[in-house]
């Protein structure tokens, strides 16, 4: 059951203050003046599965959808799943197109878009984009530009968490500007420590330092990585928590200061600080700890005036102590598992909140939000786990997915014939399973992954299957070092690809003939073909002559008088019509015809040229 988020009715017309809030440059001050302003047309400034996820929600709510796509994405499915689609960033490299704020705003204005959903990644956490939308009178489906800015700066977010009484990992109060500051920090808190990019994300720009000798090199590397990836090399230092769980809380806030949480997700299964498998709710979580995590998240969100959907991320150490790490002020890749266990459609909620509806009005009250069963999400990527998860590219020769009860698939261009390009991230399909508890959801996931047949590009499915059947994953708890510490996860069952090999063999045989030694060695030149000669003179008479000379009655008489079987030959027709490559042309049939006329004159009829033309 979905919670009903209140259908928009048209009768608000007279009351509607069109875009009043957005004409104000002080986006955060508009909350009191807003009436419901139905959104009629949404643009998603993103691509792939998340664009489609949002289009689907819009379509369900009767909202028209607009896609934007880069030149490299002309053949992508998100273009087709929207009511309208427009090219952006002409002549730009693939990623830059989706970061081209002026072009995106231009397309929005030209096509009467009234709200923009940023998805995740790309511009989703850029306050200058949220501001550009506001300035253009287009609603940004997310928090105010000011909140996006504060949350995007990890150092500032930390400071706000401290103000809200939320525990944080011991760390520097601000960005560090010298190696000396890092040294001082390590002296006070001891190793290991972690360098983090102040404006980082997606697990990039982080470096763990385990002893003094590694300090300088890692400082320099982290700085240049952050500079290259985020355009700003600012770093801060945190104590590195040993083998923590990554647990994050989903929150929703409206324009009126109401904030609720939708419980937590466990995203501890990570590779290089990037999530691979996510589950909700977290397994074996102490209810008191759950309380603290959710309360802290709601308090922090209230403190900053958080509006729309967001996630508060924590690390939980081995003693069950939790530490805030960051806020993601957008919809996350793993939002799906929360939807599965709470029956709340987060994108519907985002749209309604943006229209100015309050959480209670949407039926989203804290005491109504319940955890129902368990859900797991696997990110199926076109990466080869046998080669250090190198992205693989090419054409999907075969694509069949695992479906059935308890399985949800969120994908974009996952179909036979799709081209997997190297331009964007390698997420192919999100497989989400749900069941009454974690082992049930895991069974469904395992079954679904086994059903997938993806050929032409490598995927991480064999690796995911190993994770999903791991005893610790199924019955215990895992921490963020789980993948690094379990080498057996990399013992991959090779895909034999038998069906494809057989098909290739048959295709090759049909087109090129046999390649095996015995038939190949029998040289055609060793056999002397028999070339029939055509006798001189007119061919002997046959049944056709009877028909021509004596008419139908005479013909019928001749048939009745004939002793023995009469034959019709269909060789000409078969040779002419054959679907094989050896089709015989009319030109050649005509050359054979005289021999047939001389030697098979006693045939009743001949079928020719692929139809019912009896000769
Ligand atoms: P991002 O912006 O890339 O998501 P986060 O700060 O959320 O960065 O950290 C991502 C992951 O990196 C965490 O889930 C965790 O595995 C690891 N990590 C981050 N900070 C620490 C820390 N202080 N101690 C241990 N692991 C950490
Ligand atoms: P490969 O040749 O790479 O091993 P196949 O497509 O031939 O892959 O399938 C291998 C085996 O998987 C089959 O022999 C069958 O036992 C099993 N199998 C086939 N289809 C399914 C399915 N839909 N779900 C689960 N197992 C399947
Ligand atoms: Mg994070």
Spatial strand arrangement across the major sheet: 13-12-9-10-11-14-21-19
- The count of strands amounts to 25
Ligand types: adenosine-5'-diphosphate, magnesium ion
Question: Tell me about the biggest sheet?
Answer: 8 strands, antiparallel
Task: State mean pLDDT (0 to 100 scale).
Answer: 90
Which CATH class of one domain is shown? Alpha Beta
Into which percentage range does the β-strand content fall?
Answer: 15-25%
Tally the helices. Answer: 22
Shape: elongated
Helical residue percent?
25-40%
**How does CATH name the architecture of one domain?**
3-Layer(aba) Sandwich
Query: Structural class of the secondary structure composition?
Result: alpha+beta
- At the fold tier of CATH, the topology name of one domain is Rossmann fold
Compute the separation of the termini in Å.
70 Å
List low-pLDDT spans: 1-33, 611-615
Rg from alpha-carbon coordinates: 34 Å
Question: Please, could you describe this protein's structure?
Answer:
The model is unreliable at 1-33 and 611-615 (pLDDT under 50). The protein is of the alpha+beta class and 615 residues long. The chain contains 22 helices and 25 strands. Helix 6 packs antiparallel against helix 7 (145-152). Among the domains are: 41-141, 3-Layer(aba) Sandwich (Rossmann fold), CATH 3.40.50; 170-239, ATP-grasp fold, A domain (Dna Ligase, domain 1, 2-Layer Sandwich), CATH 3.30.1490; 543-608, no CATH class. Bound molecules: adenosine-5'-diphosphate (2 copies) and magnesium ion. The site of one adenosine-5'-diphosphate (ADP) has 8 residues, from helix 14 and helix 18.
